[in-house]
Amino acid sequence: MTETRKSIPEVAQHFGSNETTLTSGVSRARRAGNGRGESEAEELARLRAENTQPRKDDKELGMERDVLKRRMVLWVK
């Protein structure tokens, strides 16, 4: 419906479905979509921004990796 810009009654008639059933399904799909009420473009932009920011966990994991490397060098010697 959002892609074709047709109304719920038009789509329901096209598929031979009940208008109420279609309305219920559409609202459930919208609620389950992304939970924030944002468009796909907004959600994509938000997720890309989150992805480019280094996370605290990444920094900690890097430090742990470096410590393990140093331990391995000392153990091999």
Descriptive report:
- This protein has four helices and no strands.
- It has helices at 8-15, 19-33, 40-52, 56-76.
- By secondary structure, the protein is mainly α.
Tally of contiguous helical segments:
4
- What distance lies between the first and last C-alpha atoms, to the nearest angstrom? 68 Å
Question: What are the low-pLDDT stretches, counting only 5+ consecutive residues below 50?
Answer: none
Helix content: over 70%
The biggest beta sheet reads:
none
Question: What percent of residues are in strands?
Answer: under 5%
Based on DSSP secondary structure assignment, what is the total number of beta strands? 0
- Alpha-beta classification: mainly alpha
So what's the overall shape?
A: rod-shaped
Radius of gyration: 25 Å
Give the H and E element order.
HHHH
Report mean pLDDT, rounded to a whole number: 81
Oligomer: single chain
